[in-house]
Specification:
Elements (H helix, E strand, L loop, with lengths): L1 H137 L4 H33 L15 H5 L1
């Protein structure tokens, strides 16, 4: 029995050794598998780290683009403000030009009116004076007729003098700057009836 006991103990020890060896083989197998998984995880970690670095680079590039876009937008806003200011200055210049053109047109109209009046109101009395001088030369025989003719010449000369003074005032106002409206010359409708 002792042998049997020894044999059972030996068998039991042998089984334990086999079990330990078997456990040892399983442990090695598990360790091997774990080692392979660790290598896979390490490789995956390297890939993730590389991807993370690429994302950081892309993020930095995006930030740079955003900064450039911000600066470009700021510059566009500045240019827009400058353009608005130029448009405003052009509008003011255009209004000033329109005002000056209107003033020039008014001056031109006044000068044309003055030329017509000179033609009518100066030439007519001068022509009448010339006619009266011719008539006086023919009618020297009667002093009364001569006095009537001299009276007509005097009225024509006075009308001519009055118009010349009005014309001087008109031209003086026409040439004065900042005159809002140029005065019209007085048209004397009765001038020709007063002369003869």
């Amino acid at each position: 029995m002792k042998v049997m006991k020894d044999l059972i103990t030996s068998t039991s020890l042998l089984k334990e050794d086999v079990a330990v060896e078997k456990t040892s083989d399983e442990s090695r197998s598990i360790i091997k598998q774990l080692s392979q998984q660790i290598k896979v995880y390490e490789k995956r970690m390297e890939e993730l780290e590389k991807a993370n670095n690429e994302l950081a680079v892309h993020h930095q590039e995006k930030d740079n683009c955003m900064f450039e876009l911000f600066n470009a937008n700021k510059e566009l806003a500045t240019r827009h403000d400058e353009k608005e200011k130029c448009v405003e200055e052009l509008n003011i210049a255009n209004k000033n030009l329109a005002y000056k053109m209107e003033k020039k047109e008014l001056q031109i109209t006044s000068l044309e009116e003055m030329l017509v009046m000179i033609s009518n109101m100066v030439m007519q009395p001068v022509g009448q004076i010339m006619e009266l001088i011719e008539l006086m030369e023919k009618a020297i025989d009667s002093p009364e007729k001569l006095m009537v003719k001299i009276g007509c010449i005097k009225r024509s000369a006075l009308a001519l003098d009055t118009f010349t003074k009005e014309l001087s005032t008109f031209v003086e106002r026409l040439l004065t700057p900042n005159v809002a409206k140029i005065p019209k010359l007085r048209k004397d409708e009765n001038l020709s009836s007063n002369l003869i």
